[in-house]
Amino acid sequence: MAQAQLGSLTDAFRDAMASVCTPVAVITAMDDTRPHGTTVSAFASLSMSPPSLLVSLDQGSDLLSLIRRTSAFGVNILGSGQSSLASCFAKKGRDKFTDVDWSLADGLPRLAGVPGWFACDVIQLVEAADHVVVIGAVRSVESRDTPPLTYHGREFGTHRVLD
User: The Flavin reductase like domain covers which part of the protein (predicted)?
Assistant: First the structure.
């Protein structure tokens, strides 16, 4: 495929994916005493038996390197009022946890006030294109009924029940 066609396909793909509403989460891991995390919209449940989920991380991600070493990660599902957390963890850099309220839960960084939390052990890593799909067995889960933070049309929003 010619480079111009590939660029056009990439742009068209990006625009089409912007029309898909996705949930927003912060994936976390612990490196000794230092927490790490990044915002993702590419995660989903995988199986109920056993409970498992998947997240997609860039192959060059520092967080992915840490998850490969520790074989564990946390999934912090963000609520509709937490777009500032999503933006904080979407940026580059090592100081994402500065001024963020968090605690250790199941040995993993859990952000305060998140409506959903999963602690996972890595069961498989699948390389695909420029990302790695991390499949995790859920070992702990907590949730409460709160409107979710979603990403659609390159903007944060939330779900509303239809009349």
Answer: 17-158
